[in-house]
Hints:
single chain; alpha+beta; 5-stranded mixed beta sheet; 5 strands; about 15% strand
Amino acid sequence: MTSTAPMEPLPLPAGALRVIRQRTxxxxxxxxxxATTAHCPYLAPSLRHGLTHWTVYGMRPLAAQTDVExxxxxxxxxxxxxxxxxxxxxxxxLVCENIVxxxxxxxxxxxxxxxxxxxxxxxxxxxxxxxxxxTDTDRHGRVLPVPPxxxxxxxxxxxxxxxxxxxxxxxxxxxxxxxxxxxxxLLAGLSHHWTEIRAWASTLPFPQQPARPPKPPxxxxx
Length: 222
């Protein structure tokens, strides 16, 4: 099956972001990216074949958070279009687009990321978020490199592997397992205004909290 990845209109830009570094295969923080290859088996070959790209944006002075969200969401959708096309080419499973926002923090990522996860999953794409100073561990319990920048990452899903990372959103995990890029307009049936897309995203089921282990039985009293 071949996707044409239609170039549907993007949400109207809010003017909160400006490009400060055009799309390139040169990572803005090479040491961080190199350290991350120890935790992702696909990153090193992607870098080697020039299939990981970075675009860096800066926030305009006094930009409102919702305007930053709007522009970040629009930029990520544009990146997703490129991934949909490039994923059909040689080594398509290694394609990755990263949208960096200098000076942003996690709060700027949360709503765009949440909307993107649901829009991209049916066509077999994953959206990841990483923020400056984030601390986390991988699935083996190893400490991950701390990101020195805040960014969204768009890549093709790895079906045998990625659903396990979506255990708190089982519906999304099932969607990834069954994904098929049928060339759909990602925003079909939705407004092209971020405020309305954000409102739609707020109606989606939020992640389930991991089940807590049962409490051990109380010991005998002294």
